[in-house]
Amino acid sequence: MSDGIIRIAMWSGPRNISTAMMRAWENRNDTVVVDEPLYGPYLATTNKQHAMYQEIIKHQGSDWRPIVKYLTEHIPMMSRVPTPSSDLEVTLNTSQNIFDSHANRVNTSQHMPVHIFYQKHMSHHITEDVSLDFVDHLRNAFLIRHPNDVLSSYLRKHPRATPSDLGYPQQLELFNRVKQNSGQVPPVFESKDILMKPQDMLTKMCKALGVAFDENMLNWPKGYRDSDGIWAPHWYNRVIESTGFAAYKPKENKLSKAEQEIADACMPYYEALMTHKIS
After folding, report:
1. Which of the residues in the chain have pLDDT under 70?
2. End-to-end CA distance of the chain
3. Domains in the chain: ranges and CATH
């Protein structure tokens, strides 16, 4: 876009390494992030009663339109906040509600522009009523994980799931749209590869997205972030203890016959994306 901001949309599904990936990008000195900005409209449209669903809808709103305007037009800023231990602490300048109309009203003498606006998205948050035109204004990438691993993890938090709950159909639809409209194959990454070779895969990710690799992406401080979604206390119990990407460990998933049928229904979407993954 003409404002010079690189807007990166990372499309994942639930129970992936998407939040750790958000940590990696946020730890760069040139990047600010937003956490699942379309979660509120998704919950409002589908009537899904996820943990804290009322608070999430109140916080983000139920209308996707001002949100996609924010994602494609907002110019994020970093603020200089002196601390006892550091001359410069970089934080995202934002209001309590990230879509507040006053979010752009900053004191420019105390803030500096950023180069990258990284957006952590869940593919299943794209409901049928959402116009996908905004996607054409973003640099899109896709983060995938084997359905057996996703479903096994997902069922620890939710009693049931469908392929659409896990985002596989929506992820492939988004991939095909970006490919068709841009004339290029958008980058696809598998979480296992990133956990096995973080520096190598992040270097390839940055190259594919047209930005320089930054070693700060490999490690980050423990704890919550102001940029975390308000649902963080329910979902982020592991990531808040992390300081980098955990080493890959194969999972021993024990799915019932009915659960395996759900995972198997996701496989065609996963396999279609796998044919394009960067490794």
Report:
1. 1-2, 79-113
2. 29
3. 6-274 (3.40.50)
